[in-house]
């Protein structure tokens, strides 16, 4: 079988590398992604490895590159991607890279330090500028007089209430006598602290401070991203004691105090000096930012290249730390798993690495004998990868176990489509996936990191087939947006004359208690069986029938049972391939054969009965194989028949008059049915102890004869034979299989349930489903309107209908059907043959490491 049906043959190889060519050899192996190296120093800590010093140097370079990336992202600068293959640097290149990164790091540190100083000075000068500008009119005679008046009145009030006041009272020598004795303090404070600032000043200074504030907006420089919601304040008071107290309050609120000269001339001179300094600083800031942009722009052009180079260097040294070193310190010894068919590719890569390094001694690779279970590896492409991911989400296949993925390629979208089946919604799903497939090259180059988008993109081929199969099952159901299409013409005809229909309608209208009159279409003569059934799919007449669900429910329920048992039976036959591969004739004779008999004689027999019932009980009575069948009115109940089979209840042969009250469903409806069912039941029951006891007893007998018996534990590893453990293990699997046949068959009824929930409706019942509800409640509303208003309404309602269809029926219902399809494959199908206890093959791969670094893989 090909590699897709079974995992690749794997070989454990030993690799001898010369010290001077080891780096180049591992770098070449990282490019071909075919070697999974084992750690030969499991007990050694990270600090005891030979190449730990080189790994730390790489980590130091990574830190410096992260600093550069942070600076670029902070400034919003574009970092170009790299699309060509980047060669792995040699160990001799490390010094050059370190010097280059150190230079960039020092330049950025110097620029950032200078920028921090400039920022502090810039903000300080801006604050002084705004304080001088805002307090100019606060220091005129009118404001001073108002401040003098306010403080004087407050001092007088404090003197009158001095005996009852425990807080500050103005001493006699600090009483305000003239306006010239006023003192002031000005500065800047955060705007959100102004109210609390004024309240504390009032309480601690007993109103002896006159406060004025005004909001300002400091013009931001793009290099100085600072909170600019500030306010200028000026405080008038008298006395040195209050000056000290006011300054302490300002310090407590982290306000910036600006030393403002007393005279107008000095303030004007200071304002001119500040403006000059701001202009000079603007020139310095411009030059600094220009130099910073030059440094960052040059770094941005090569940042991705440097990051990947350092990543490869670190990965190679980390891999070299897994190896052993011989006593001469001249040879490295490694062990690795390699796909057997690719050993020659690895050897060619090692030869190429030896030429690159100039080594005269070639690397040596030879296969080792081992009893360890190898890792599991499949050769996949972009089409099969999505389906393999569905299988691997349950568990990695055991080594050389049959892989369910090739069969899942067909069965998964089909099972999904049985539940989702709608041609219209299937077309939308198919076209959406087709767009992802057609533009996959551009999408790959874009390297989109959105997790949800990458989930859909990774499963684009799965979605493509899901949409395609949904179109097929929708055609079988004759379901397009919950409507049926009359493509070939219905095979049912109206047997009533126009006169009869007209007279009936007149009588209905004239009746006092008028009720809807339902006309039935009896098979004879309404059904045109001479022309055969509807050529493909469901006859569209059923979309108008009142008993639509009475017809659809049994059909879809029985189809679900047939599909489910067919898939379980196929999974059981796949287990034979595993037994054949292991050469286990015991499993084939005493596990597979009893399981097949149990499944066939009860459940496959039930499927045969379903098909026989469809054939034998036609719309008209008929005679088949000498047996008379009275028609569908006397069709037996398969459920009651199955119960009668297990109870071995006696039944009469043939059928009685279908129009009487006779229990037609308890009759034998084919020759020797009672005898055949008795034999089936006895054989099925006897197969259970065969499944349970024969294999453990045969294994015990072989062990007593000194023969080797291979026993696998649940984790896939080998274990010694223990009869008790083997017996318990076999009992668990036997009980699981017997009960699973019943529960798994019932589980497949979700195909019927979700199919009905997606599409159909019975208008006379409360059983309404999503697709029909959207059509009845949304689209039909627009069709009922006429004229220009109706045209506009249909246009708007169509978009509402489309959005609701995509969000509810395609995304939500599609996700529900997808999850149910996964469950049916994981539990009902794969449990018959798939262990899923293997270990994935994870080779040393630069490509995977780069995708992990770019955030494109988990």
Strand content of the residues, in percent? 5-15%
Distance between the termini: 31 Å
- Assembly state of the chains shown: single chain
Based on secondary structure, the structural category is: alpha+beta
Cα shape: extended
Number of helices: 25
**Poorly predicted tracts of residues:** 163-174, 761-768
| Rg over CA atoms | 43 Å
Q: Helicity range of the residues?
A: 55-70%
Mean pLDDT: 83
Count of domains: 5
Task: Outline the biggest β-sheet.
Answer: 5 strands, antiparallel
- Number of DSSP strands? 13
Protein name: V-type proton ATPase subunit a
Organism: Panagrolaimus sp. ES5
In short:
Helices cover 58% and strands 8% of the residues. The chain has 858 residues and is an alpha+beta fold. The chain folds into five domains: 1-39 and 322-377, Alpha-Beta Plaits; 41-128 and 284-320; 136-259, Alpha-Beta Plaits, CATH 3.30.70.2750; 386-482 and 760-839, no CATH class; 548-710 and 722-734, no CATH class.
Give an overview in words.
The protein has 858 residues and is of the alpha+beta class. The chain has five domains: 1-39 and 322-377, ACT domain (Alpha-Beta Plaits); 41-128 and 284-320; 136-259, Alpha-Beta Plaits; 386-482 and 760-839, no CATH class; 548-710 and 722-734, no CATH class. It has 25 helices and 13 strands. Strands 1, 2, 7, 8 and 9 form a five-stranded antiparallel β-sheet that branches. It has a four-stranded antiparallel β-sheet with strand order 4-5-3-6, with helices on both faces. A two-stranded antiparallel ribbon has the order 10-11. Helix 10 (405-420) crosses helix 22 (750-759) and helix 17 (548-582) packs antiparallel against helix 21 (723-747). The chain starts with 9 loop residues before the first strand and ends in a 5-residue tail after the last helix. Residues 163-174 and 761-768 have low confidence and may be disordered.
């Amino acid at each position: 079988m090909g590699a897709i049906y079974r995992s690749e043959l794997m070989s454990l190889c030993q690799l001898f590398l010369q010290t001077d060519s080891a780096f180049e050899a591992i770098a070449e192996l990282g490019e071909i992604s075919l070697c999974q190296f084992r750690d030969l120093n499991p007990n050694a800590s990270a600090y005891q490895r030979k190449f730990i010093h080189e790994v730390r140097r790489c980590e130091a370079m990574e830190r410096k590159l992260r600093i550069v990336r942070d600076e670029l992202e902070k400034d919003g600068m574009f970092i170009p991607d790299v699309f060509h293959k980047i060669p792995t640097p040699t160990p001799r290149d490390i010094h050059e890279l370190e010097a280059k990164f150190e230079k960039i790091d020092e330049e950025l540190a110097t620029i950032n330090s200078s920028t921090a100083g400039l920022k502090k000075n810039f903000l300080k000068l801006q604050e002084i500028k705004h304080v001088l500008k805002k307090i100019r009119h606060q220091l005129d005679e009118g404001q001073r007089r108002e401040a003098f008046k306010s403080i004087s009145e407050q001092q007088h009030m404090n003197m009158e209430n001095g005996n009852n006041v425990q807080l500050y009272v103005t001493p006699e020598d600090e009483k305000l006598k003239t306006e010239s004795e006023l003192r002031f303090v000005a500065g800047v404070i955060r705007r959100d602290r102004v109210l609390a600032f004024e309240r504390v000043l009032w309480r601690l200074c007993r109103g002896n401070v006159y406060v004025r504030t005004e909001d300002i907006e400091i013009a931001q420089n793009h290099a100085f991203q600072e909170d600019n919601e500030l306010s200028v304040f000026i405080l008038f008071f008298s006395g040195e004691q209050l000056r000290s107290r006011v300054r302490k309050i300002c310090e407590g609120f982290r306000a910036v105090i600006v030393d403002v000269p007393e005279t107008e001339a000095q303030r004007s001179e200071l304002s001119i000096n500040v403006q000059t300094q701001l202009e000079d600083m603007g020139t310095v800031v411009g030059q600094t930012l220009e130099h910073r942009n030059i440094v960052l722009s040059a770094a941005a052009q090569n940042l991705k290249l440097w990051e990947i180079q350092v990543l490869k260097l670190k990965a190679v040294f980390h891999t070299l730390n897994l190896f052993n070193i011989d006593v001469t310190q001249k040879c490295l010894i490694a062990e690795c798993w390699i796909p057997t068919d690719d050993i020659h590719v690895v050897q060619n890569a090692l030869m190429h690495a030896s030429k690159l390094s100039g080594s005269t001694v070639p690397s040596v690779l030879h296969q080792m004998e081992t009893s360890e279970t190898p890792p599991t590896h499949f050769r996949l492409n972009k089409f099969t990868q999505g389906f393999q991911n569905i299988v691997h989400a349950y568990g990695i296949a055991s080594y050389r176990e049959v892989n369910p993925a090739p069969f899942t390629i067909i069965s998964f979208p089909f099972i999904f489509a049985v539940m989702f089946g709608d041609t219209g919604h299937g077309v939308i799903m198919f076209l959406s996936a087709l767009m992802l497939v057609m533009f996959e090259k551009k999408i790959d180059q874009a390297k989109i990191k959105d997790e949800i988008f990458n989930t859909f993109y990774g499963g684009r081929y799965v979605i493509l087939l899901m949409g395609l199969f949904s179109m097929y099952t929708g055609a079988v159901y004759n379901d397009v947006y919950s409507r049926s299409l009359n493509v070939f013409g219905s095979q049912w005809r109206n047997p009533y004359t126009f006169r009869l229909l007209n007279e009936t309608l007149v009588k209905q209208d004239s009746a006092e208690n008028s009720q809807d009159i339902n006309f039935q279409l009896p098979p004879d003569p309404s059904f045109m069986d001479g022309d055969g059934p509807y050529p493909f799919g469901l006859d569209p007449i059923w979309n108008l029938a009142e008993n639509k669900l009475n017809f659809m429910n049994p059909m879809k329920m029985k189809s679900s049972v047939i599909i489910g048992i067919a898939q379980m039976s196929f999974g059981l036959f796949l287990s034979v391939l595993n037994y054949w591969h292991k050469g286990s004739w015991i499993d084939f004779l005493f596990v597979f054969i009893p399981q097949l008999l149990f499944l066939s004689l009860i459940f496959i027999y039930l499927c045969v009965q379903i098909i026989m019932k469809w054939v034998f009980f036609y719309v008209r009575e008929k005679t088949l194989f000498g047996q008379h069948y009275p028609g569908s009115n006397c069709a037996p109940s398969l459920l009651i028949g199955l119960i009668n089979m297990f109870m071995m209840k006696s039944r009469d042969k043939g059928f009685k008059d279908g129009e009487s009250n006779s229990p037609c469903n308890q009759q034998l409806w084919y020759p020797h049915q009672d005898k055949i069912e008795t034999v089936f039941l006895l054989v099925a029951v006897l197969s259970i102890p065969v499944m349970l006891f024969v294999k453990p007893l045969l294994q015990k007998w072989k062990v007593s004869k000194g023969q080797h018996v291979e026993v696998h534990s649940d984790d896939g590893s080998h274990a010694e034979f223990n009869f008790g453990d083997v017996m318990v293990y076999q009992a668990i699997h036997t009980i699981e299989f017997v009960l699973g046949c019943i529960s798994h068959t019932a589980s497949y009824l979700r195909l019927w349930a979700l199919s009905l929930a997606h599409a159909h409706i019975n208008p006379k019942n409360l059983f309404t489903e999503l697709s029909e509800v959207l059509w009845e409640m949304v689209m039909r509303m627009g069709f009922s309107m006429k004229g220009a208003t109706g045209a506009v309404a249909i246009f708007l309602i169509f978009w509402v209908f489309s959005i609701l269809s995509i969000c509810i029926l395609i995304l939500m219902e599609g996700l529900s059907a997808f999850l149910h399809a996964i469950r049916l494959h994981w539990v009902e199908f794969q449990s018959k043959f798939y262990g899923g206890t293997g270990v994935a093959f994870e080779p040393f791969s630069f490509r995977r490491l780069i995708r992990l670094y770019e955030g494109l893989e988990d």
